[in-house]
Design a protein that fits this description.
The complex is a heterohexamer, with two copies of chain A (130 residues), two copies of chain B (99 residues) and two copies of chain C (120 residues). Chain A is an alpha/beta fold and 130 residues long. Chain A has five helices and five strands; from the N terminus they run βαβαβααβαβ. In chain A, strands 4-3-2-1-5 form a five-stranded parallel beta sheet, sandwiched between helices. In chain A, α1 runs parallel beside α2. Chain A starts with a strand and ends with a strand. The mean pLDDT of chain A is 97. The two termini of chain B are 22 Å apart. Chain B is built from four helices and five strands, in the order βαβαβαβαβ. Chain B is an alpha/beta fold. Helices cover 33% and strands 23% of the residues of chain B. Chain B is globular, with a radius of gyration of 12 Å. Chain C starts with 5 loop residues before the first strand and ends with a strand. The longest helix of chain C is centred in the N-terminal third of the chain and has 14 residues. Chain C has one domain: Hypothetical Protein Ychn, Chain: A (3-Layer(aba) Sandwich), CATH 3.40.1260.10. The mean pLDDT of chain C is 96. Classes of the chains: A alpha/beta (130), B alpha/beta (99), C alpha/beta (120).
Chain lengths: 130, 99, 120, 99, 120, 130
């Protein structure tokens, strides 16, 4: 089965990013494929590498990064939702004349079209809400 | 063409729970996750769930444990783990998330 | 590839949070992708279509204006949940575009008849 | 020692509205802001507000306008601007925010 | 300077969002500052005190453990809204610490009798 | 009258930061003083200078910054809430071995004690909720 996952909940004020992570991990362990993880709304903060939770708490940015690297997952962050919330990669930082950036691969900024494409391609699109 | 519905808000969000329960059709599964699992001990919602006919009600195990609740399994009510969550998503042709 | 029909169920009021705006962006993009999109406005969402909105003082974009552009993107299946409109005393003549009423049973059937359902 | 209460969620969050209205005492003001202003046209909440005795009900003007609503002013109900919001906060000895 | 009495009204369930944890952090800090702190748990918040909580699998801190430390910080005025507890079928013997019931009228009086009221 | 303001709502997914801003602006115009603005919970993202909203939308980071500079306001961001959400200044970025930072004066990271102190000192503490 080919899954895509839409995450809408805040990275650090909602359990949904972690529930989505457990779902993705379980789906991969069962032999399913994941076409794309799409971060939208408040969930775009997941892509910020500046997140520094206490050592005994979950690091959701790191969890997704490691899962993506292990399974070559496509982590797409909605670019419009990300820019207004202060999540940007090197190219966007330059374009917006910012002195620094806080996001990089495997997180990738792209348009909402990637969500529509995921809906078309995948057997199942599952949302983890705010 | 049945649907897996998930709901992640506590039953004190009555408007959400009512919309969700009204959207269930025979053959659908309602998977209750995150703060939704307080439905298990909520006086009115727990009763309404038990009267839904032809609907499977599942509670996500990790969330029930986290909140220290007790879910009574029955004909139409079960506790599922993360792996079974994935299976439910496969068995139904689409998912709808209530949040 | 078979064309998938998308149903968007909106439930939030405008301006208090970003849900309504972000849901409309999804609708417009999906339509631009050539996907057939239906919209259902439930709970607090029918107020999104009120033509009397004037959000200048709170410095937000007028969402009614965005909604009025939906037909230009071929999004013409726009439904309002009957009870939600009644609770907020919203009538069809107050809206920026033509919409139809649908009840809860109708929404259940729409969910079953669409391929992808997104809620906001 | 009266209180200025603010509430910023729509009345579809009934649990919040009920808690808030139960917490009002004579002399208090309830200032309705942001999505709370949908209370003005909500069938049941609007009626309950009109029956509160000894409580001043105010709607924040910018939010009423933004959402295109009509508020009917009366003995206990008024529309206030941002400056009057500040005055209300001064006139009461504390504020409580319902959200 | 006159000492101000602080009332914290919690309304959210644990784990779904950060409100409960962040409210407890405020309570502990205010107490460390020597302020008299009272806690009232309303709506979904009484479940915060259930001793049966085991959040290891969702990788969050056990909030019941944090709550059980409240008396060590001299936070001993802990109240549970009666109806909220009844709706969730929560009884006092299920809790990590002693708490008292208070009804809605009692909460209204507590708000009036405290100098600073924060809700979460 | 001496006010302090507690902002709890998300910077970019809640109207509350903007309502709080209008309140502060009106209070200052009426001749009141503001002891402190305390950003807690999701509102800490307000302190991120990487935020890049579309030009025709409000920039809440900039609005507060300009108000603070005009009136010497004390903008305090809860450090624990900020670090876990990826909001940090130069000193914290160094301490957490991050390659960049996204917050600086007039926003200042500090502990929750600053909220208690504001509650003690101020005539009124008003919350703008999530």
């Amino acid at each position: 089965m080919l899954f895509s996952i839409l995450i809408y909940g805040s990275a650090h004020n909602s359990q949904s990013a972690h529930t989505a992570y457990r779902f993705a991990d379980s789906a991969l362990k069962a032999g399913h494929k994941i076409h794309r993880i799409f971060f939208y709304g408040e969930s775009v903060h997941t892509a910020s590498e500046l997140s520094a939770p206490p050592r005994d708490e979950q690091n959701i940015h790191q969890l997704w990064k490691e899962l993506a690297q292990a399974h070559e997952l496509d982590l797409v962050v909605c670019i419009a939702a990300a820019l207004k919330r202060g999540v940007m990669d090197k190219a966007e930082a330059k374009r917006h004349e910012k002195g620094s950036f806080n996001s990089q691969a495997p997180y990738e900024l792209s348009g909402l079209g990637q969500l529509s494409e995921a809906a078309i391609i995948s057997d199942r699109l599952i949302t983890f809400g705010a | 063409m049945t649907t897996l519905h998930t709901i992640n808000k506590s039953p004190s969000n009555l408007a959400l729970w009512h919309s969700c329960m009204a959207a269930l059709l025979p053959g659908d599964t309602l998977l209750i996750i995150e703060n939704g699992v307080y439905a298990a001990t909520h006086t009115t919602i727990a009763e309404q769930l038990s009267t839904l006919e032809g609907i499977n009600i599942s509670f996500l195990s990790a969330d029930v444990q986290a909140r220290g609740l007790v879910v009574t399994e029955s004909n139409n009510t079960s506790i599922v783990d993360d792996q079974q969550f994935v299976n439910l998503a496969c068995q139904h042709s689409k998912t709808v998330s209530w949040f | 590839m078979q064309q998938k029909k998308i149903l968007l169920i909106l439930s939030r009021a405008p301006y208090g949070d970003a849900h309504a705006k972000e849901a409309l962006d999804v609708a417009l993009t999906a339509a631009a992708f050539g996907l057939p999109v239906s919209l259902v406005l439930t709970q607090d969402a029918p107020a999104l279509l009120l033509k009397s909105q004037q959000p200048q003082q709170i410095q937000q974009k007028n969402l009614a204006s965005i909604c009025s552009a939906l037909p230009m993107y071929d999004i013409e299946n726009i439904y309002i949940e009957t009870l939600a409109a009644q609770i907020q005393q919203i009538t069809l003549d107050q809206l920026v575009l033509p919409a139809e009423f649908v009840n809860e049973a109708g929404i259940a059937l729409m969910i079953r008849n669409h391929d992808v359902v997104l809620r906001f």
